[in-house]
Automatic annotation (TrEMBL):
Residues 347-356 have a biased composition (Acidic residues). PANTHER family: CELL CYCLE CHECKPOINT PROTEIN RAD1. This is DNA repair protein Rad1. One of its GO terms (biological process) is DNA repair. It comes from Exophiala bonariae. InterPro entries: Rad1_Rec1_Rad17.
């Protein structure tokens, strides 16, 4: 008699899994780590870009992992994320694009045509089974009386990142932290795309203008800049921010350089790498932007899995620790994290220029992908 599988999980919505995984499908392979609290998928490109998403166990109606009491995970393996996405959409999952998203992020409850009907978007029940280490990962999709089973080869992972399992972000030495509506970031990147730049320059200060801007450099049609102003004629800067200004688009904005330095935070990144996060930008309701003193940039997106209610106004939801607004309903939101290594080589690119400012506050950012 066959032994029970090492891991089994059942989801009633293959669409949720498909949407989250497609956000990081910029490379053919994904590393998979199954833990007691959920499944972590990691995709990287040339060791300078990494995308991570965490499928929390609350997304599944059944979640069983058979490991020893002293173990919290099973050996990491890799699979073809392309094959996984093809399997999840076997019954015709509708594509959630920026044209159908809620203006504040998340999924729109309206459907543009008959082929986007809710019954197709849900795509039935998804069962994930992993019999033992080294065995294929089995995906079973059931819609009514029709069942499709796919066995995907798993591969041994050679070489691993250090630190927390990804491109290292030094949370103790952050020089920039900001939380803003994701659509503002998405629109800014789209605006800069018009000049086809080769590099994106992140420019920030809490003392002198420009306080927060993105610049597109090296394009054949010239350079361009999107500047998020701290005040307008109709919306004066709040009195609490006098002497320490922040963009109106940001909920939280902190520039905190090392002691004894002066200047501003200014760092360059390959523009094509930033665009890899475009799908997550379009779907998310909020984004937490962090940059450490080595120039590593983290964009962590909060994606609403319901009707797009996680907006910046009333009824605001927060991260898993309840640091931003009220805590979200379990399974109502998910987080996708992108990390970028900066461009180096030129004199201005070798390190971040930073400016003296206020200290960091540990409760300003999402921390869902630990």
């Amino acid at each position: 008699m066959a032994s029970p599988p090492l891991f089994t999980a059942i989801s009633t919505s293959a669409r949720q899994l498909h949407v989250l995984l497609r956000c990081i499908a910029f490379s053919p392979r994904a590393e998979v780590q199954i833990t007691r609290s959920g499944i972590r998928f990691s995709v990287e490109e040339a060791r300078v870009l990494q995308g991570l998403t965490f499928l929390d166990k609350v997304l599944f109606s059944t979640y069983q992992l058979k490991v020893d009491d002293e173990q919290d995970t099973i050996p990491t393996f890799s699979i073809s994320i392309v094959a996984l996405l093809e399997t999840l959409q076997i019954f015709g999952i509708s594509d959630s694009s920026s044209s159908s998203r809620n203006p504040n992020g998340g999924f729109s409850s309206s459907y543009g045509n008959a082929f986007n009907a809710p019954s197709l978007a849900l795509a039935g029940t998804c069962r994930i089974t992993y019999q033992e280490a080294g065995a294929p990962l089995t995906i079973t999709i059931q819609e009514g009386s029709v069942t499709t089973t796919c066995e995907m080869n798993t591969y041994e992972v050679h070489g691993e990142y250090h630190d927390d399992g990804g491109i290292p972000l030094d949370r103790e030495r952050l020089c920039l932290k900001a939380i803003m509506r994701s659509t503002w970031l998405h629109d800014a990147i789209n605006e800069l795309s018009g000049t086809n730049p080769s590099a994106l320059v992140l420019n920030a200060s809490n003392r002198t203008a420009p306080y927060f801007s993105f610049e597109g450099e090296g394009g054949p049609f010239g350079d361009s800049t999107v500047d998020f102003l701290p005040e307008t004629k109709n919306e004066p800067t709040p009195s609490g921010l006098r002497g320490r200004k922040q963009p109106l688009v940001a909920e939280n904005f902190v520039v905190a350089p090392p002691s004894g330095t002066h200047g501003r935070v200014r760092q360059r990144y390959k523009f094509e790498m930033i665009k890899r996060a475009g799908r997550a930008m379009a779907l998310a309701s909020k984004v937490s932007l962090r940059q450490d003193q080595q120039g590593v940039l983290s964009l962590q997106f909060m994606i609403d899995l319901g009707d797009g209610a996680a907006t910046m106004g009333g009824g605001r939801r927060g991260d898993v620790d309840g640091n931003i607004g009220a805590p979200p309903t379990p399974g109502s939101v998910a987080f996708v994290d992108f990390r970028f290594v900066p461009l180096v080589g030129d004199e201005d690119d070798s390190a971040s220029e930073v400016e003296s400012g206020d200290g960091l506050h540990a409760d300003d950012d999402f921390e869902a992908l630990n």
